[in-house]
Amino acid sequence: MENIQLGLKENWKQFALLVIINAFVGGMIGLERSILPQLAEQVFEIASKTALLSFIITFGITKAVVNYFTGKLANTLGRKKLLILGWLFALPVPFILIYAPSWSWIVAANVLLGINQGLSWSTAVMMKIDLVGDKNRGLAVGINEFAGYLSVGVVAFLTGYIASHYGVRPYPFYLGIGFAIVGLWLSVFFVKDTRQHVSVENKASVIPLLASPFWDTTLRHNSLSAVTQAGLVNNLNDGMIWGLLPLLLLAKHFTSAQIGILTAIYPSVWGLSQLVTGRLSDIYSKKGLLFWGMLLQALGIIGLIWVTTFTHFALIGTALGFGTALVYPTFLSAIADYTPPAQRAESLGTFRFWRDMGYAVGALLTGVIADYFGLTMSIFSIGTLTALSAFVVLFRMK
Q1: How far is CA 298 from CA 24, 95, 272, 384, 390, in A?
Q2: 8 A C-beta contact, residue 274 and residue 146
Q3: DSSP letter assigned to residue 179
Q4: Residue 170 C-alpha from the chain's centroid
Q5: Residue 192 near residue 80, CB atoms below 8 Å
């Protein structure tokens, strides 16, 4: 029987492989980040913000539900099988985006993309947490999210650049074909399952079992539920930024290349900063990081109302990216801290269910408010909600 050891140093080869795979997972999201709202308006002539944001709503609901079942099935089916399954769902996505004859096909592609992200991203982060044990959990999550979201930002920039030179279809989506093929190949032939690492850690754990991982993570456990609501609101505002920022920039007459750069700054700063903030969550107050991160996001979002220049938008994107970086790895390491290893996958799956449901709630709320009251009121409402979430963390989390 193989000698199983926990730790980043002891498992660096598998850990590095999973980092590379998660970069490809993030790249699949980056395909859509800067140009899909433009595709909706320019190719399919969709004027309603609610209808336009339907692709994010569909993506969010699908990913949220799959996240939950990924957590439930991780201990029975195994992490590796779920990772491979996620990549199989990714394969058709770029082809649908290239050849879609109507907007409904784009929405359908986002169902497949949501399944891919729910299976592949969730499994990748879960496996990294399994490998490192409890000492470097925040660092592990930070590196995972760094790879994923830096890739989102880089690919968002590349697709914006390609679209500005060659049009919004088909060339920007060719990148996704390569991501899906390479991601699947690495997962099938090189990744090893990590269930045995969980068994080793579980023997030494003294954390009491949760009565119900779903309900404790959602509502009953003060700290777990405080983290969960903040995760939902974080992705709620990210859904707004994803859908409205390109339109806001388009309305202010920025070029496709400029929109690509500005939409890439936020996820790129978010990704890069997590190398630092992930480690901070191992040594500093998780409550403090979550409170200040959510508050910084709120101020950045509300600031979008008044900015007009490229430089100002770049500064706002940087602030939003760093605020999100403060909370994102902290979310997952905090959830893992409060749950025993045997229930960690289900608790993480529950958290990620609610967190990614925020995409759907945010896109729907953003679209409805924007259609009835305008972009400014939509942005202000989401910013205010983000600030309120920060104070829920402050008063409810231990």
Answers
A1: 29, 37, 20, 7, 9
A2: yes
A3: H
A4: 25
A5: yes
Listed in sequence order, the DSSP H helices in 74-102 are 79-90, 93-99
Task: Report DSSP letters for 190-204, one per residue.
Answer: T----HHHHHHHHHH
Name the nearest CA neighbour of 21 among 112, 119, 114: 119
User: DSSP state, 210?
Assistant: P
CA 15 distance to own-chain centroid: 19
The owner of tokens 């608790």 is 347
Task: Please state, in angstroms and rounded to a whole number, the distance separating the CA atoms of residues 264 and 318.
Answer: 10
138 neighbors 329 (Cβ within 8 angstroms):
yes
pLDDT in tens, the chain (398 residues): 467 888 888 899 999 999 999 999 999 988 877 777 778 777 787 766 777 677 778 888 999 999 999 988 988 898 999 999 999 999 999 999 999 898 889 889 989 999 999 999 999 998 998 998 777 888 888 898 888 888 988 898 898 888 888 888 888 899 999 999 999 999 999 999 988 888 887 776 777 888 999 999 999 999 999 999 999 999 999 888 877 888 888 888 888 788 888 888 888 888 889 889 998 988 889 999 999 999 999 999 999 999 989 999 999 999 999 999 999 999 988 998 889 888 888 999 999 899 989 988 888 888 889 888 988 899 999 999 999 999 999 999 98
User: How far, in Å, CA of 27 to CA of 180, rounded?
Assistant: 9
Output the CATH code of domain 12-396.
1.20.1250.20
List % helix, strand, coil for the chain (3-state, nearest 5).
Answer: 80, 0, 20
Give the global pTM: 0.83
Residue ranges of domains in the chain: 12-396
